[in-house]
Structure formats: C-alpha cells, structure tokens
Amino acid sequence: MSGLRAVLFDMDGTLVDTERAWVEVVEQVAARHGYALVGAGRTAVYGRSVEDTAKMLYEPLDVHQDVLAAELGDGFAARLADGAEPRPGALRLLSALRRDRVPTALVSASPRAVVDRVAASLAGHRFDAVYGAEDTARTKPAPDPYLAAAAALGAEPSRCVAVEDTVTGVTSAEAAGCAVLAVPSMEPIAPAAGRTVLASLEEADLALLRSLVSAGGTGHA
Predict the structure, then answer these.
(1) pLDDT per residue over 53-73, tens digit each?
(2) What sections of 33-157 are H helices per DSSP?
C-alpha cells in the first residue's frame, strides 16, 4: 500500500523544548561528582536515554551506573514536573494530522514517566501509540522503538515519517526504514537521501509529510 500511513514523533527537542534542559541536568549530575561535561562528551548525550547516558558517565565519574541513572532520571523528571513548552509549529502540525486522521506515535528515549507527563501537556493531543525508553529492549540509536511504533500502528516503516531533532534519533529512525524529517535543536544534521532537514516545524505541513513518503525524502535543507 502506498502513501503516508503514520507520523512518528520524537519528544525532547522535537515537539517540546526539553533537550537543553536534559543536557543541563546531565551537566549538573556530572559536576556533582567533580566532572565537567564539555566538548564531545556534552554532544554525546543529545537524544540519549538515561541508561545510556549513565553508562557513558560511569568511567569518568567512577560512580555506579544505577546511582547515576537514578540521579539523571530524578533530575529530569523534576525539571519537567509542570510539563514543557511546545516547539514552534508542533501543536499546529499535530492538529492537522488529527484532522486528517493520520495516526501518530510518540517515540522517546526519555523515561516513560516523563514521556507521559509531557504528552499530557501537548494541548490534549492523543497519540495512537506512546513509547518511552523502557518500552523496547533497546532504545535509540537502535531501531527498536521506531519499529515497535510502526508495528503498533499497523504501518510499514517505509510508509512512516519520523520527526527527529538529533543525530541519535535520526540514526534510530533511518535504521528502522522510516523517511525522516529532521528539525535540529542542539546540533546540526546534514541532509541525506531519505532525510529532509528543516529549520522549524513551522515549515512543515501535511503535504510535505506525504511527499517525503512518496518521494523517499527530498534531502533539502
């Protein structure tokens, strides 16, 4: 079957302005243990799960991964206790998809408790499937969460558009076989075959999303 079947959204930095908050939480946890998160170490946490970030910090901090994961998860949840600010164009695009009855999924590497809290703040939009870091055997950059979301919606990944803001997320979505709309938040993302890069979701509409599936992605910036 041809045509767009579903749109699969990343959460942090894509639909809501939380990627910067996540990085700040990681910086604070690292500093608490006497380590400055800078350069490539800082960039490496973009789009990563609590558990993956704890693994990355384990060696330089010499603190047990479970302890780090708890500190990271608790800190991030506390920062988002009141929800999060939607990114420009996010609510308009979600509304357009709902009006046209295009299924949507929320596919995040954040803890499920955080995902549920933030999802509830998106102007009442109801996703047809929701995935947090604990909901698949592996999370981003592995393809598992996008494969699971597409399957839950009864859609072939090749007929889904994944909307992402980090290289980690783009890697996951492309490994699953999705067309990708990248809207970078904290780091640049280069256009590529099957991947379209925009400056903002304000530039995206349903016609564009449909074209990404039919054309396999335009690769334009």
Answers:
(1) 998 888 888 888 999 999 998
(2) 39-43, 50-61, 65-79, 90-99, 112-119, 144-152
